[in-house]
Design brief:
It is a single chain. By secondary structure, the protein is of the alpha/beta class. The chain is built from 11 helices and 8 strands. An 8-stranded mixed β-sheet has the order 1-2-4-3-5-6-7-8, sandwiched between helices. Helix 2 packs across helix 3 and helix 5 packs across helix 7. The chain starts with a strand and ends with a helix. Bound molecules: D-malate (MLT). It holds the Pfam family Abhydrolase_1. This is AB hydrolase superfamily protein YdjP. Its EC number is 3.-.-.-. InterPro entries: AB_hydrolase_1, AB_hydrolase_fold, AB_hydrolase_sf, Epox_hydrolase-like.
């Protein structure tokens, strides 16, 4: 079911399906909830799945000059309120969605039963990366999205996916091109100022699953394994035949990791 939720001055698009313990799916950058299309139905066979379009992405509006990760997390909490979901949720976020997961933990931990961190990082940008993001924000505002896929796809998808699954590369390209430069620029600026959360990791006391694509060059498996080891009891799973976009590149393996993790804890 597709929902249009009016919260303050913003209209959020949210897709839900299924019954069972709630599982929130939060997308990466510069994407929308469609990046979870291949896992949405299989996960909804066992869960109430809630896939959101973050502020400024997909069919959600609410543009700002900058959207810090804290604001995205507050938006997700408000969406859960609006949907009347009082039960604690499993929060799954990929990459930027993972940066938001840290803020959910920090600001709304009473809402969380578990976390699933997909292809993401615990460290902040260095000054060079942060400057590059601010420049990229200016570039999309002046030139639009047309150059973005060609620059990003080699980093988002494994070589294997690009050659063997052209339909995935096509869907990802189209998803990027659909995004509004205002939302993209605001999130880039927000990511540039996100904090290093390494000191939070030993405090995390809810079940946590860390998932990395074996060929992820943005958040490489070794780095993810390293921060997973700092989270008490966290499980780490490396997904074969995938780069940064695990839910699109190897959806079956993602479901095989996620469903038992959620089931074992029920
Ligand atoms: C993402 O997939 O959300 C981005 O790679 C995050 C980032 O640019 O750090």
């Amino acid at each position: 079911m597709d929902h249009k939720l009016r919260i303050g001055d913003t209209s959020f698009h949210v897709r839900t399906a299924g019954q069972g313990s709630p599982l929130v799916l939060v997308h990466g950058f510069p994407l929308d909830h469609h990046m979870y299309d291949a896992v949405f139905e299989p996960l909804a066979e066992q869960h109430q799945v809630i896939a959101v379009d973050l502020r400024g992405f997909g069919e959600s509006d609410g543009y700002r000059e900058i959207v810090p990760m804290e604001m995205f997390a507050d938006d997700v909490a408000a969406i859960l309120d609006e949907l009347d979901i009082a039960e604690q949720v499993t929060f799954a976020g990929l990459s930027m969605g993972g940066y938001i997961a840290w803020q959910m933990w920090q600001r709304h931990r009473d809402r969380l039963s578990r976390m699933i961190l997909l292809d993401t990082r615990a460290i902040a940008d260095d000054e060079v990366q942060a400057r590059a993001r601010r420049m990229a924000a200016e570039a999309v505002l002046s030139a639009g999205m047309s150059d973005v896929p060609v620059n990003m796809l080699p980093k988002l998808l494994s070589e294997n996916t690009r050659h063997e699954k052209p339909e995935v590369a096509k869907a990802l390209t189209e998803m990027i091109l659909r995004q509004d430069p205002r939302g993209v620029a605001a999130a880039q600026r927000g990511m540039a100022q996100r904090p290093n959360v390494e000191s939070w990791l030993p405090e995390i006391n809810i079940p946590t699953l860390v998932i990395s694509g074996e060929h992820d060059v943005i958040s490489p498996p070794d780095e993810m394994k390293g921060f997973a080891a700092q989270i008490p009891g966290a499980q780490f799973v490396e997904i074969p035949a995938a780069g940064h976009m695990v839910p699109m590149e190897n959806p079956e393996a993602m479901c095989e990791a996620v469903l038992p993790f959620c089931r074992d804890l029920e």
